[in-house]
Specification:
With 625 residues, the protein is α+β, with helices and mostly antiparallel strands. Helices cover 32% and strands 14% of the residues. It is globular, with a radius of gyration of 22 Å. It starts with 37 loop residues before the first strand and ends with a strand. The chain binds 6-diazenyl-5-OXO-L-norleucine. The site of 6-diazenyl-5-OXO-L-norleucine has 14 residues, from loops.
Length: 625
């Protein structure tokens, strides 16, 4: 439980990331075309400062807004600004690949695909070939697309595959070969490029091949490898590549991944056929057979990316576009936003007990319904209309008291009519034409199930844990999910990943937002929108601001370490909330230390320029041109 007054102002500020040198080589002459005019200050030695620094002016600051004393991220930093395009991701090398693709004449989809593939190399803890994700695309003409390349359960998966003989949940859904769902990333990136790309496929794949031949190890990679090394060491091939000489590589060491370079080269030359039907498919299946996994050649061959109807909802005159199921993001955000429109959060004040209370109460109710009702729409009937309806939001919101917290035990799933029937990463790109792409991609835990495919050099996901292994018991994110999200052959597991694009009242592009963070993804993305729309923050402030979270069960208001002051926490406790400050971990636990996911946020400004900020919580970089 929280220590009411603990905001440790003596705690060292977050270290600043430096990527002082560009990767060894960056693809077929693209460097010649490089013109980076804006970059995230403090994170890079490349690029010029031109265009940086529109100042921190914002309605939030003008109204006297401030972050809690001791909070490690400033409200005053100037955002990255640009006019010709922007890329924001968790890794500078990957953002640089994206910006170079834009400079070479690629559009936002080309840049997103290239950035995603680069992340599979430089961010192996979350970026991936062996996982899956979701992509939102908004073309400059306003058409919005939602692409689902989520993993699927293998055909041999069974409902109780993670239970022991006593019916208890084992750790096999999070660790090892059996934890892997059939990967979707390669299919998704290929399909996006096939449908919308402007450059040749070979040009968008090449930079990741160059990075796989060697890049300089970053602080983030060292930190996450250090945290995951015990799990990685359990698998010989994983350790051989990622713990060379049985040790975590040093910052600045050159890290080469020849097996991965070979896979990416086949991807460049053969497209996804190699991954789903060719040599790489055979390597995946051989790895499965070696380690007791169940993904077969037929599973890989049958994998398909699905284009789905995006979820759209109005929030105070802005239109929010996000992912439909099997992501729970769009519908859960819609339910929360519709409830919260009853309160003037701006007038109630950012981070005030009143605002946190009504947010937590709305989160609690929407997550109760998310956890119970949402699942793969190809297998289960979903109450989509209810999640989006004002009537549902009314019926939910009218049970919210401003005087007291409602215990989660009293908040049952609330869609009566329907009852009658029955370690991730995010990146965002906007190009000069105004096409926008938001992608959240994952192998679930950092380094997934810790299994590297021998001969292929990439980690497999452990996303099977996003199913309810035993409905009614928590998964690794503490989400207590229901029967509809039970395991089934070829079913997609429910996700919280929420790549999101917001339009202003005129229907013009406004925000591109998203984050990792497991169950907290939905509330983090929403708070980035509330911070801008309700509290007048600019992109830096909206990213830096501390966040709160509630997910129905456990019945707790979580907040980031140092994010809520003692008086506010006491006021929430007086309303009946149990407030939990996230554990900061050891002093050098940069990436786990009491923080939620690293948000990537791009804002289209009224004058046609772009501003962006990449979250320092995991040391990302926004680059503009
Ligand atoms: O799809 C989901 O909801 C999870 N697999 C996301 C995992 C995640 O964000 C972990 N990262 N911090």
């Amino acid at each position: 439980m929280r220590d009411a007054d603990r905001i440790d102002t003596s705690r060292p500020r977050w270290p600043t990331f430096r990527h002082d040198r560009a990767p060894r080589s960056l693809g077929v002459g693209l460097l010649l075309l490089l013109f980076v005019s804006a970059c995230q200050p403090g994170d890079t030695g490349a690029g010029t400062e031109t265009g940086v620094g529109s100042g921190a002016a914002s309605a939030f600051i003008e109204a006297g807004g401030a972050f809690p004393e001791g909070w490690p991220f400033a409200a005053e930093d100037a955002p990255v600004t640009a006019t010709e395009g922007m890329v924001a991701s968790t890794d500078e090398f990957a953002s640089r690949v994206g910006i170079e693709i834009l400079a070479a004449g690629g559009n936002a989809v080309d840049a997103a695909v290239a950035t995603g593939l680069a992340l599979a190399v430089v961010n192996p803890e979350a970026g991936n070939l062996g996982g899956g994700g979701f992509m939102m695309i908004r073309l400059a003409d306003g058409t919005v697309f939602a692409q689902d390349h989520r993993e699927k359960a293998p055909m041999a998966a069974t409902r109780d595959m993670y239970l022991d003989e006593d019916g208890n949940v084992t750790d096999l859904s999070v660790r090892g070969h059996l934890a892997a769902g059939v990967p979707g990333t390669v299919s998704g990136l290929w399909e996006a490029h096939r449908r919308f790309g402007a450059l040749e496929w070979t040009d968008v794949v090449q930079p990741s091949i160059d990075l796989a031949h060697g890049f300089e190890v970053t602080t983030r990679l060292v930190s996450t490898l250090d945290a995951a090394q015990e799990g990685i060491r359990a698998f010989e091939h994983s350790a051989r590549i990622f713990l060379p000489g049985d040790a975590v590589p040093g910052i600045g060491d050159t890290f080469a991944q020849p097996d991965l370079a070979a896979v990416l080269t086949r991807l460049r030359d053969q497209g996804p056929d190699d991954f789903y039907r060719g040599e790489t498919a055979a390597l995946i299946v051989a790895e499965m057979e070696r380690g007791g996994g169940i993904i077969t050649l037929e599973d890989l061959d049958r994998y398909e990316t699905v284009w789905r109807d995006p979820v759209a909802f109005d929030y105070r005159g802005y239109t929010v576009h996000s992912m439909p199921p099997p992501s729970s993001g769009g519908l859960t955000m819609a339910a929360i936003a519709n409830m919260l429109e009853r309160w003037d959060l701006g007038a109630m004040g950012w981070n005030s007990p009143e605002t946190i209370h009504v947010m937590a109460e709305s989160f609690r109710r929407a997550y109760a319904d998310r956890n119970e009702y949402l699942a793969d729409p190809d297998f289960v009937e979903l109450p989509t209309g209810e999640f989006l309806s004002e009537a549902y939001a009314d019926s939910r919101a009218e049970t919210i008291s401003t005087e007291r917290a409602t215990p989660s035990a009293e908040v049952n799933p609330g869609i009566d009519a329907f009852l009658d029937e029955s370690h991730t990463t995010h990146y965002a790109v906007v190009d000069a034409e105004g096409n926008a792409v938001a992608v959240t991609t994952s192998i679930n835990s950092w380094y997934g199930g810790k299994v590297v495919v021998e001969g292929a050099g990439f980690f497999l996901n452990n996303t099977m844990d996003d199913f309810a292994s035993k409905p009614g018991t928590p998964n690794q994110f503490g989400l207590v999910q229901g029967e509809r999200n039970a395991i089934g052959p070829e079913k997609r597991m429910l996700s919280a990943m929420s790549p999101t694009i917001v339009e202003d009242a005129d229907g013009d592009l406004f925000l591109v937002t998203g984050t990792p963070g497991g169950a907290t993804i939905i509330t983090t993305v929403l708070q980035s929108i509330f911070n801008v729309v309700d509290h007048g923050m600019n992109v830096v402030q909206a990213v830096h601001a501390p966040r709160v979270h509630h997910q129905h069960l456990p019945d707790l208001v979580f907040h980031e370490y140092g994010g809520v002051g003692g008086a506010t926490a006491s006021a929430l406790e007086a309303l009946g909330h149990t407030v939990l400050e996230r554990d900061p971990g050891p002093p050098d636990a940069y990436f786990t230390g009491g923080m939620s996911g690293d948000l990537q946020l791009i804002m289209a400004m009224p004058d046609g320029s772009l501003t962006a900020w990449s979250d320092p919580r995991r040391g990302g970089t926004a680059l503009g041109r």
